[in-house]
């Protein structure tokens, strides 16, 4: 009788054991210490299904024939030809050498943004950068799609991005001390399922239960009522999307109008308050910013805003802001305005008071204190980067100037793109614009386990194993444990681990020894773990088991800090704990931004009309699109897994809208709708939902782009065919995905099931 092996493993959505019998996965069990495991763990079996896996190295026919002179419009439709690993590695190394020598290493784009697997050793983007650094360098990226405008403005105003990186007040202190909690965006187990690098325990629900038990007044400011579980008993303030800065400023202005702002806190702990106060009182522009002003812009009730301002002053109040709010045009402003409001109230640095910014599972949870395991990327020989979401601008405008954090730089002349562990045809905005830009580089290499939309648009495709086909280690700066991610099944087809692939290419480039340092997989895991263990012991006196004991047990606790109140010491003595900002204090009026004079990022927190918002909607069927994170998967990963499929309807993604809107437009529940604007169009299945604010349509991200014939219509429901590719501002240059108007209408024609259409398209391109 065959025995079942239980193999410990971890993904961004948590830890689990894979049950393996006769080399096949027969079950998945959650980590026993996790109080609220994610349903996505049940989807990992999908990695062992070859349907969408890349099984061998492949090269686009047109590229193989004509190399850098190929017809690049063939990307995405040309057939692929199988090659050996030796041939593939030689081709890739040859291109790195050719482009580096002819145009300079800045012409190789190796930013390679993406979440890849949670393993910290086979971490594809890090290994790519390590290899390219040894080979002469590359153009990289700064910040993330998750947060860019946010950290840029916080680094300037607080001197660090700790407050949005998981080091603001921890949720345990909020659960015990806060009396009024104002949530902008979400506090949702949906998004808290995931943490970059994995996590052992999902704790958000426990803290929310404690808040509910204590009878804390919770106000949810969001276009979506289910952005917080209903049992929390929050009041729902269905704000017009992208107008949060106006609400925050109106609350602050109301307090100032009553003369009740904390003058002592503003004086001792802030700089430039005069500028902000002048904006609030209207001495600057003649408009008083108060509850009435905010009500007009946000669509909320004037009296409720005025009352809330009073209550935030009178009780211990905490403001939380989701990262989503800064993933929008002028996204710097809601982050800065929340800080301005918290400073006016004056509770920053008190337990359960002030402001924090978060979204992932580990944000607000106790944070890791010791050095988390990470493979070194080595020294960068050249300093070339772009703000992460400016990829299309870079490809379309070589040599053009861009600004970032007050500096002016120039885009490189990109000849080669190497993407490993990310999916730009998932994550980037305005995919039709990206598609045009995608024809510009001479050579595109994609390394991924799956035939993603991006892989299908590459010249050279390198099949990586998924994490369950190799050994790795999980754990990150917000993780409570480190986990052994043990190999559960044999590699599929001829796929190889990311480390093996890069070792091979590094060898071709003559830097193999520098890349591997003579170590194999298990040697590296030992080194990375021991590095963290020694740091925990030396700096914190925290004992972790040695590597062999850890590997045997499958997990080890990591030292964490709980009960943390952000800026407590600074509040006590601002001079002794000066912040690394232009004034040493919290910046509410900025000398730097005053000098820069950007119209889209002024010198104090402000409400600026977004590029698109409901205030600009002209037609009765125009909606604000909220393309939020999918509940049943991580981005585009495991899209065909059971947790993801369970939330699809009629062969595509669900678009939720308010029944009143749906009835008005004769859109039946369960019917197919077309969402479109001047940038693109997609189909989705309409679902009536009272939890969605009228005027808003919600379409999650992550459907695999599936164009219907040559029509350009995406039938799977990928919202990035619709979203605008505009920067948040000249200062932050972040992604603005949550700023988007779309038209919605019934779709009468028939269209194929998206999964079947994807499979057919793939078979035509890459029969193996
Ligand atoms: N409209 C809209 N767009 C958005 C957002 C939004 O809110 N709205 N959110 C944005 C945000 S916050 C983010 S973080 C991005 C996410 O964007 P991405 O991080 O690019 O999305 P993923 O689907 O996680 O892509 C990871 C890729 O890595 C591959 N992969 C998995 N494991 C491995 C491995 O072991 N090795 C290799 N080589 N590859 C592997 C997967 O197959 C997948 O193709 O999307 C952004 N896009
Ligand atoms: N299940 C699952 N969890 C995930 C991910 C995933 O793909 N799947 N991705 C992870 C990643 S990479 C990240 S960065 C985080 C992101 O976490 P968030 O940025 O918090 O996630 P979103 O789902 O984009 O947005 C949260 C909510 O913000 C609200 N919102 C949107 N626009 C506005 C606005 O203008 N005003 C207000 N008040 N609310 C608004 C929407 O209703 C939305 O549901 O999630 C992580 N968690
Ligand atoms: Mo993200």
Structure description:
The chain is 29% helix and 18% strand. Strands 5-4-20-19-18-6 form a 6-stranded mixed beta sheet. Strands 26-30-27-29-28-31 form a 6-stranded mixed beta barrel. A 5-stranded parallel beta sheet has the order 10-9-8-12-13. Strand 1 and strand 2 form a beta hairpin. The chain folds into 4 domains: 44 residues, no CATH class; 227 residues, Rossmann fold; 252 residues, Dimethylsulfoxide Reductase, domain 2 (3-Layer(aba) Sandwich), CATH 3.40.228; 152 residues, Barwin-like endoglucanases (Beta Barrel). The chain starts with a strand and ends with a helix. The protein has 25 helices and 31 strands. The chain has 768 residues and is an alpha/beta fold. The protein binds ligand MGD (2 copies) and molybdenum atom.
SSE diagram, text form:
Elements lengths: L4 E7 L2 E8 L2 E7 L27 E3 H6 L13 E3 L2 H19 L4 E2 L14 H11 L5 E3 L6 H9 L13 H7 L2 E5 L4 H4 L11 H10 L3 E5 L13 E3 L6 H14 L5 H7 E2 L1 H9 L9 H8 L3 H13 L2 E6 L9 H14 L8 E5 L8 E2 L16 E3 L3 H6 L4 E4 L2 E4 L5 E5 L3 H4 L3 H7 L5 E6 L11 E4 L8 E3 L6 E5 L12 H11 L3 H5 L4 H20 L6 H7 L1 E3 L2 E2 L6 H5 L13 E2 L3 H6 L25 E5 L15 H4 L8 E4 L1 H6 L7 E6 L2 E9 L7 E3 L42 E6 L7 H12 L3
Parallel strand pairs: 6-18, 7-15, 8-9, 8-12, 9-10, 11-25, 12-13, 18-19, 19-20, 26-30, 27-29
Antiparallel strand pairs: 1-2, 2-3, 4-5, 4-20, 14-24, 16-17, 21-22, 22-23, 26-31, 27-30, 28-29, 28-31
The chain binds ligand MGD (2 copies) and molybdenum atom.
């Amino acid at each position: 009788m065959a025995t079942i092996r239980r193999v410990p493993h971890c993904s961004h959505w948590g830890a689990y054991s894979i049950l393996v019998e006769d080399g096949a996965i027969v079950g998945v069990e959650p980590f026993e210490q996790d109080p609220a495991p994610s349903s996505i763990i049940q989807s990992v079996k999908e990695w062992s299904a070859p349907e969408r896996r890349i099984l061998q190295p492949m090269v686009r026919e047109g590229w193989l024939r004509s190399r850098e002179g190929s017809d690049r419009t063939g990307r995405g439709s040309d057939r692929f030809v199988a090659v050996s690993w030796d041939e593939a590695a030689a081709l890739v190394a040859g291109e790195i050498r050719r482009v580096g020598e002819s145009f300079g290493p800045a012409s190789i784009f190796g930013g390679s943004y993406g979440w890849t697997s949670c393993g910290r050793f086979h971490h594809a983007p890090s290994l790519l950068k390590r290899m390219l650094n040894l080979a002469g360098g590359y153009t990289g990226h700064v910040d993330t799609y998750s947060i860019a405008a946010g950290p840029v403005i916080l680094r300037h105003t607080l001197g660090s991005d700790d407050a949005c990186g998981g080091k603001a007040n921890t949720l345990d202190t909020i659960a015990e001390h806060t009396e009024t909690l104002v949530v902008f965006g979400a506090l949702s187990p949906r998004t808290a399922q995931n943490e970059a690098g994995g996590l052992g325990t999902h704790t958000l629900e426990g803290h929310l239960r404690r808040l509910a038990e204590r009878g804390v007044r919770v106000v949810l400011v969001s276009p979506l009522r289910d952005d917080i579980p209903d049992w929390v008993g929050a009041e729902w303030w269905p704000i017009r999307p992208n107008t949060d800065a106006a609400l925050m400023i109106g609350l602050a202005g109301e307090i100032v109008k009553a003369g009740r702002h904390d003058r002592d806190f503003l004086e001792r702990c802030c700089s430039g308050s005069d500028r902000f106060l002048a904006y609030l009182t209207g001495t600057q522009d003649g408009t008083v910013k108060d509850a009435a002003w905010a009500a007009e812009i946000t669509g909320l009730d004037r009296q409720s805003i005025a009352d809330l301002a009073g209550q935030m002053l009178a009780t211990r109040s905490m403001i939380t802001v989701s990262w989503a709010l800064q993933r929008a045009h002028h996204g710097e402003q809601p982050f800065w305005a929340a800080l301005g409001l918290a400073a006016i109230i004056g509770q920053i640095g008190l337990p359960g008071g002030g402001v924090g910014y978060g979204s992932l599972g580990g944000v607000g949870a106790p944070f890791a204190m010791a050095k988390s395991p990470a493979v070194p990327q080595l020294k960068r020989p050249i300093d070339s980067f772009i703000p992460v979401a400016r990829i299309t601008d870079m490809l379309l405008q070589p040599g053009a100037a861009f600004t970032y954090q007050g500096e002016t730089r120039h885009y490189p002349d990109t000849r080669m793109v190497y993407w490993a562990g990310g999916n730009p045809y998932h994550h980037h905005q305005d995919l039709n614009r990206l598609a045009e830009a995608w024809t510009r580089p001479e050579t595109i290499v994609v390394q991924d386990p799956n035939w993603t939309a991006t892989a299908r648009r590459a010249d050279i495709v390198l099949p990586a194993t998924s994490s369950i086909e190799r050994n790795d280690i999980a754990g990150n700066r917000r993780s409570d444990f480190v986990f052994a991610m043990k190999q559960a099944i044999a590699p599929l087809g001829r796929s190889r681990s990311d480390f093996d692939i890069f070792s091979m290419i590094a060898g071709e480039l003559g830097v193999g020894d520098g890349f591997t340092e003579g170590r194999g997989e298990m040697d590296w895991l030992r080194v990375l773990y021991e590095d963290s263990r020694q740091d925990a012991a030396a700096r914190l006196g925290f004992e972790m088991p040695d590597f062999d004991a850890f590997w045997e047990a499958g997990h080890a606790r990591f030292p964490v800090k709980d009960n943390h109140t952000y800026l407590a010491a600074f509040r006590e003595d601002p001079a002794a704990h000066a912040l690394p900002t232009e004034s040493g204090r919290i910046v509410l009026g900025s000398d730097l931004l005053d000098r820069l004079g950007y119209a889209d990022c002024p010198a104090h927190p402000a409400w600026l009309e977004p590029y698109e918002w409901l205030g600009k909607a002209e037609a009765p069927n125009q909606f604000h699109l909220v393309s939020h994170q999918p509940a049943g998967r991580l981005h585009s990963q495991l899209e065909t897994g059971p947790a993801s499929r369970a939330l699809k309807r009629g062969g595509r993604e669900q678009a939720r809208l308010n029944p009143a809107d749906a009835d008005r437009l004769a859109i039946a529940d369960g019917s197919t709708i077309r969402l479109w604007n001047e940038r693109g169009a997609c189909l989705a299945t309409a679902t009536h939902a009272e939890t969605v604010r009228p005027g808003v349509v919600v379409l999650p991200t992550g459907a695999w782009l599936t164009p219907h014939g040559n029509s350009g219509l995406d039938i799977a429901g990928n919202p990035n065919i619709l979203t605008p590719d505009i920067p948040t501002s000249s200062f932050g240059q972040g992604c603005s995905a949550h700023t988007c108007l779309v038209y919605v209408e019934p779709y009468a024609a028939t269209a194929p099931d998206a999964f079947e259409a994807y499979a057919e398209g793939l078979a035509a391109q890459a029969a193996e």
